[in-house]
């Protein structure tokens, strides 16, 4: 009887493992199934111009959203549901199931790779420093901000936070705010001498506001940033499908026509750097 009980327990254990494996596989395939069934895919992004941002009627704008929508069409669906949230809530929102894909122009970084799966890079982009018009403190690098002991502002979760730490700007001199608009406002109000972030985002604000400008010349303390679309860790199949579609799409006439109006040019195309390389500590 004891042997029979043990055999029964072993059989139950194997059945449970098989069910768990099946459930995991079903979960991993669920997003692909939604795409194949032409269901609406929920895309999560913050208000990050020109990467991904909402229009007047909450329609998904920005070149990363445009690229995502094109890829989804190639995979089988034309329906998307935009979900806008703060930058710092993107990864938690994906993990909580609020949306299916992060399209916010998120740079591929080792610490993020521990929480999400990224596609291959969508492009290569530089950073910038925004200062009051005339650059009164003569700031041309993060090192200048550090050496002069001035206040620096950036958005929580941006790569600029890591750059500031690596350069050695004191923690009490780094102000973290919600997003790009708050970065610019802190500089305009004099609460920070400069603000850091990606070139595209800060240039958009500087072009529209005479009270601020981008530091020029500017010496970057960081290599190019490489954004990707982000998925849950159990969605390797989805990432593989998107990467396969991206191979033919990146640099195509179709893509360049869609992203050109947002400032994305040929100089921003991926340079061969891979996600595997970017995810290494």
What does this structure look like?
This protein is an alpha/beta fold. The protein folds into two domains: 151 residues, 3-Layer(aba) Sandwich (D-Maltodextrin-Binding Protein, domain 2), CATH 3.40.190; 88 residues, 3-Layer(aba) Sandwich (D-Maltodextrin-Binding Protein, domain 2). It has eleven helices and twelve strands. The chain has a five-stranded mixed beta sheet, with helices on both faces. A three-stranded parallel beta sheet has the order 4-1-5. Helix 1 packs parallel to helix 9, helix 2 packs across helix 9 and helix 2 packs antiparallel against helix 10.
CATH superfamily of the largest domain: Periplasmic binding protein-like II
**Class from secondary-structure proportions:** alpha/beta
Separation, N- and C-terminal Cα atoms: 54 Å
Give me the number of helical elements. Answer: 11
CATH top level assignment of the largest domain: Alpha Beta
* Tally of domains: 2
User: Which stretches of 5+ consecutive residues score pLDDT under 50?
Assistant: 1-29
Neighbour order of strands in the largest sheet: 9-8-10-7-11
Determine the CATH topology of the largest domain. D-Maltodextrin-Binding Protein, domain 2
What would CATH call the architecture of the largest domain?
A: 3-Layer(aba) Sandwich
Order of helices and strands: HEEEHEHEHEEHEHEHEHEEHHH
Quote the beta fraction: 5-15%
Mean pLDDT: 90
Rg, Cα atoms, Å: 22 Å
Main β-sheet description: 5 strands, mixed
Helix coverage percent: 40-55%
């Amino acid at each position: 009887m004891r042997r029979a009980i043990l055999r029964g327990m072993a059989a139950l254990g194997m059945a449970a493992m098989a069910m768990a494996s099946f459930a995991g596989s079903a979960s991993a395939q669920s997003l692909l199934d939604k795409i194949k069934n032409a269901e609406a895919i929920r895309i999560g992004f913050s208000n990050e111009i020109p990467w991904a941002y909402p229009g007047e009627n909450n329609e998904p704008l920005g070149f990363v959203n445009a690229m995502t929508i094109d890829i989804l069409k190639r995979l089988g669906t034309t329906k998307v549901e935009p979900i806008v949230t703060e930058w710092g809530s993107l990864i938690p929102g994906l993990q909580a199931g609020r949306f299916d894909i992060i399209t916010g122009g998120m740079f591929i970084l080792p610490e993020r790779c521990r929480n999400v799966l990224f596609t291959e890079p969508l492009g290569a982009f530089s950073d910038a420093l925004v200062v009051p018009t005339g650059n009164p403190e003569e700031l041309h690098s993060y090192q200048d901000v550090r050496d002069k002991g001035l206040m620096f502002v950036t958005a929580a979760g941006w790569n600029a936070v890591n750059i500031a730490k690596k350069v050695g700007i004191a923690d009490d001199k780094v102000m973290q705010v919600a997003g790009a608009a708050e970065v610019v406002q802190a500089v305009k109000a004099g609460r920070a001498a400069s603000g850091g972030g990606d070139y595209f985002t800060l240039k958009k604000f500087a072009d529209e506001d005479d009270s601020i400008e981008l530091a020029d010349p500017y010496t970057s303390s960081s290599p190019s940033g490489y954004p990707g679309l982000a998925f849950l860790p159990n969605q390797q199949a989805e990432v593989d499908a998107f990467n396969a579609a991206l191979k033919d799409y990146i640099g195509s006439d179709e893509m360049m026509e869609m992203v050109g109006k947002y400032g994305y040019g040929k100089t921003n195309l991926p340079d061969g750097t891979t996600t595997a390389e970017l995810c290494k500590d």
